[in-house]
Amino acid sequence: MKPKTPRLAARALILQDSALLLVNAFADARSDLWCAPGGGVEAGSSLPDNLMREVFEETGLRVSVGAPALINEFHDPASGFHQVEIFFHCTVTSGDLVADWRDPAGVVTERRFFTQSDLQTRKIRFKPDSLATMAWSQGLTYDPLERLIR
């Protein structure tokens, strides 16, 4: 099988009151896996512009995009899917998480803030593994290739 070109995605690290915003990005909540809001990059638009669009679609929040914090890769050997994600520190500039917000794509089913302790004690399933430390850190880190899980 010929390898597929990696997909590029941008993700937001949004901290409020020392808690990190995560989304359940599985239509019909068919998985309990949580991740940072964001998604695939559209050609011809900058990473920050793509991220601002994705965060708004998934959460209803407007954000400003700061410095990159993490580069993460994951893949699925069975399908050949490979994604490279760039995580940016972001700040909410307007909006609130409201119960009736709906992701226009119908992918995000829930949005919640989690403490660092929630992630470190594995009270929830999340990816990438380094999220429990990187969201609260400064600087840029590379998280090596992880196997895709659902």
Brief account:
The chain is mostly beta strands and 150 residues long.
User: So, CATH architecture?
Assistant: Alpha-Beta Complex
Unreliable spans are none
Mean pLDDT: 91
Give the strand content: 35-45%
Structure overview:
With 150 residues, the protein is mainly beta. The protein has a single domain, classed as Alpha-Beta Complex (Nucleoside Triphosphate Pyrophosphohydrolase). It has helices spanning 47-59, 116-120, 131-134; strands at 7-16, 19-24, 33-34, 38-40, 62-76, 81-94, 110-115, 125-126, 141-147. Strands 1, 2, 4, 5, 6, 7 and 9 form a seven-stranded mixed beta sheet that branches. It has a two-stranded parallel ribbon with strand order 3-8. It starts with 6 loop residues before the first strand and ends with a strand. The mean pLDDT is 91.
Furnish the topology, listing elements before pairings.
Elements (H helix, E strand, L loop, with lengths): L6 E10 L2 E6 L8 E2 L3 E3 L6 H13 L2 E15 L4 E14 L15 E6 H5 L4 E2 L4 H4 L6 E7 L3
